[in-house]
């Protein structure tokens, strides 16, 4: 009796370990583990930053702020700096549209120099020409 139980338990364990998985289970596990160029993994978002979601508590009355991770915080700071730089560039471009900078007859002066006759021309210390 004892010997028969050991043989029976051994046979059951052997058959259980040798049992194959169905094809549908083995294929789905294979695609998730090893994506290829023919079957890419569509769950991954390459090049996109994950969007921070707000958690809500007590039927949406209270919202918990999502703390950014260190990498996301650096990205947020970078985006903020780029916005400030773009604003400064727009301001500088608007400044450069003034005739003081865009009109060549100003010679770098804030106000346009007077046109004098050749005998009355004066030497300008600011731009180094006579006008």
**Structural class of the helices, strands and pairings?**
mainly alpha
Query: How far from one another are the termini?
Result: 124 Å
- Kindly provide the radius of gyration, computed on alpha-carbon positions and rounded to a whole number of angstroms: 39 Å
**Largest sheet strand order:** 1-2
By DSSP, the count of extended strands is 2
Seen as an oligomer or otherwise, the chain set is single chain
Strand content: under 5%
Mean pLDDT: 76
Percent helix: 40-55%
Estimate the global geometry from the Cα principal axes: rod-shaped
The major sheet is characterized as:
2 strands, antiparallel
> What's the number of helices?
4
Detail the poorly predicted runs.
none
SSE order, one letter for each helix or strand: HHEEHH
SSE layout and pairing:
Layout: H1 2-18, H2 23-33, E1 55-57, E2 62-64, H3 70-96, H4 99-102
Structural features, described:
This protein is mostly helical. It has helices at residues 2-18, 23-33, 70-96, 99-102, and strands spanning 55-57, 62-64. Strands 1-2 form a two-stranded antiparallel ribbon. The chain is rod-shaped and about 135 Å long.
């Amino acid at each position: 009796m004892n010997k028969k139980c050991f043989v029976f338990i051994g046979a059951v364990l052997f058959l259980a370990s040798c049992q194959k998985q169905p094809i549908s289970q083995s294929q789905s596990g294979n695609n998730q583990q090893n994506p290829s160029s023919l079957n890419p993994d569509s769950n991954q978002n390459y090049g996109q930053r994950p969007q921070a979601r707000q958690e809500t508590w007590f039927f949406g009355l209270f919202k918990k702020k999502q703390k950014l991770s260190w990498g996301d915080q650096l990205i947020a700071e970078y985006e903020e700096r780029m916005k400030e730089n773009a604003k400064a560039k727009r301001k500088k471009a608007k400044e450069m549209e003034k005739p003081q900078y865009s009109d060549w007859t100003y010679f770098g002066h804030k106000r346009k120099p007077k046109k004098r006759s050749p005998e009355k021309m004066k030497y300008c210390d600011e731009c180094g020409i006579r006008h």
